[in-house]
């Protein structure tokens, strides 16, 4: 049996990049920024954020103007001081009914310091 589904997909938000990868030697300031951009017909504000685990990363969010739009810039910093590998997520809470939480995966590969 085959099932074919057709339809249009409406983008609510653009997240660039879609995941965070922190890789490098222990002791180095490893960080990555992610831009969260509401699409034109689906404005929202970010009301908060949290990570799923404690002790892996710190997160800060700054609203910035880009091409006349408000962009939420999320910056994720590694907190591990020694060799480690981890997976985490940051959950961004929004006022958008159709997408109240945006989940961004985080991968950390921290190598032994040289």
Architecture overview:
With 114 residues, this protein is an all-beta fold. Helices cover 0% and strands 58% of the residues. It contains no helices and 8 strands. Strands 1-3-6-5 form a 4-stranded antiparallel β-sheet, with no helix packed on it. A hairpin with a 6-residue loop joins strand 7 and strand 8 (101-111). The chain is globular. The mean pLDDT is 95.
Largest sheet: 4 strands, antiparallel
**What is the helix tally?**
0
Distance between the termini: 57 Å
* Extended strand count: 8
The amount of beta strand, in percent, is: over 45%
**Rg, nearest Å:** 17 Å
Structural class: mainly beta
Uncertain stretches:
none
Mean pLDDT: 95
Biggest sheet strand line-up? 1-3-6-5
Shape designation = globular
Q: What proportion of the residues is helical, as a percent range?
A: under 10%
* SSE pattern: EEEEEEEE
List keywords for this structure.
four-stranded mixed sheet, 114 residues, globular
Layout of SSEs?
Layout: E1 13-16, E2 20-25, E3 31-38, E4 46-51, E5 57-66, E6 69-78, E7 84-94, E8 101-111
Parallel strand pairs: 2-8
Antiparallel strand pairs: 1-3, 3-6, 4-7, 5-6, 7-8
Give a concise summary.
By secondary structure, the chain is mostly beta strands. Helix content is 0%, strand content 58%.
């Amino acid at each position: 049996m085959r099932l074919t589904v057709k339809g249009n997909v409406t983008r609510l938000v653009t997240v660039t990049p879609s995941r965070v990868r922190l890789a490098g030697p222990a002791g180095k300031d490893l960080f990555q920024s992610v831009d969260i951009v509401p699409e034109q017909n689906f404005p929202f504000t970010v009301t908060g954020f949290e990570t799923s685990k404690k002790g892996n990363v710190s997160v800060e969010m700054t609203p910035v103007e880009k091409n006349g739009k408000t962009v939420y810039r999320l910056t994720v910093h590694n907190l591990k001081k020694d060799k480690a590998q981890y997976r985490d997520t940051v959950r961004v809470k929004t006022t958008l009914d159709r997408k109240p939480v945006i989940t961004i995966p985080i991968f950390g590969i921290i190598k032994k310091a040289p």
